Amino acid sequence: xxxxxxxxxxxxxxxxxxxxxxxxxxxxxxxxxxxxxxxxxxxxxxxxxxxxxxxxxxxxxxxxxxxxxxxxxxxxxxxxxxxxxxxxxxxxxxxxxxxxxxxxxxxxxxxxxxxxxxxxxxxxxxxxxxxxxxxxxxxxxxxxxxxxxxxxxxxxxxxxxxxxxxxxxxxxxxxxxxxxxxxxxxxxxxxxxxxxxxxxxxxxxxxxxxxxxxxx
Length: 216
Description:
10 strands; alpha+beta; globular; single chain; 4-stranded mixed β-sheet; 4-stranded antiparallel β-sheet; CATH 3.90.470.20
């Protein structure tokens, strides 16, 4: 069975601005442009951190040369080799990077603090809405489903442009667009988040805590 690696950095404190700016300056222009789309400083920091985590992982795996050739497609999905795939997500106190060789991956992480039946009825499949009505903790249940949907959409390659009502993520295996997609979710107690991974093949998952200073 192939493996997907999840690298997680949880932080509420950041180095001084000079260190962050130096790290930012070392990145390819394409990634700088993406980071600069964030106008709120904390979001800018987390977007930067995700790119630095990617660079660190590629270096560790002997694929550092791929980093400077990174490209972005029309749906905003980044790639730098046909031999491996990666995906990044961030929320208030955590950044996660998914990496796997020989298959597609998508990842999403969200704070466990939102939930709305109104939104669910707008975006979720009928069986998902029915399941939500039975849950005692609406927020956790909503975020569980939302992260699974977004992870699958990112793995598929179009992001949430795909009709989210057109598939259900209640099961571990989802049939969509004539393919099977595999879902796994991991509550993160340290940051009060839910993390979900989607993959184009069934995988084992390894979780790696990544200290902030190790990527600068």
